[in-house]
Amino acid sequence: MTISTVADFLARHAPTPEMEVVLHIGRHKTGTSALQQFFTRNRRFLSEFGVVYPPTGRYANAHHLLATMLNELQKSPTAEISPEYRKHLEDDIAPALGRAPKALFSSESFQNVRPKNLHKFFRHSSTTVIVYIREQYRYAQSAYMQRIHGNLETRSFEEFLNNFNVDYSEFLDPWDKQFAPKEMLVRPYPVSPKYDGDIVRDFLGQAGLPYQNIEPSRSSANISIGGPLLEFKRFLNTLAPNRADLTRLTYRSLAKLASSHPKYRVRPGVSHLEVERYRQKFVSSNETVARKYLGASELFARDKKANDSEQANVIPDIAIEEIEEISNALLQSSGGEITEFLRSSNEDRLKDLQGSHRAMAIALKVIR
Length: 368
Description:
By secondary structure, the protein is of the alpha/beta class.
């Protein structure tokens, strides 16, 4: 069987009418990596209860490729599937979906696909959509840390926060138009104490699967960098704003350093007044979502109280000792490649460095 276009793949391999589908759409920064690792590593456990986590359309542990194809379909019904994926899709999809009465698909990238395209793909099946949402300020903190660590973000946290506006009522409305309210399970993150605050247990409970004997996951699947480490990486981003290789050179070594000391995981923050002003923008929308999906008056009451003490973590200047520790870790992990990379990235920027930024560059041996 030859599959050449996205439309061809989606038409031939949508789940059957007999199949139940559990569709996990994220959102980002709500324990998605931990969930997807569990799904991948525990396929035998899932199969014991008639659930398959299909390999087709997955990239790493999640169905990011399926989400990409659905996005491509939005652009053109005749969009072609790249040759590197084609054989994988042809070989795996039929046997994968033929083994069980229920299929589980998971990707936070689904949150960016038009709900009508997902509904079209799963239209013949009984589909339950599960989405986790996070209090907006905490969401902004985590998103910012990831953008600095894994991308080339250069804005301060305050600048980032001013442009990070997530209205959950607006986000969920298009999903409501495609999936009936009874098919939509909206879960606040962090999750309920009923499930020991554990995302895997919570998800299994929502999907109707046994969770009582599942060992709670105690560590994050992704280590986030914070504190002076976050500011150091932001400095590197300013030196190499158009060089994607910077992430390759630094990502793992920065994560390793972050795991070594709590000071390198401190979340960024703004003043209490600015936090409350920011949160106030979403009060009405959050109340609407709480009433509609949870039958409650507040959406993030527990999360908000738990995080009051973290609101004002405005990152101070980096100490010389910290600059040296971070620089040494990067130099050792890259074998000096980071020095040549930054020196070749932007000589003009190096000439204008002052204060702590100049000290960082000297420690990295970028400035002789």
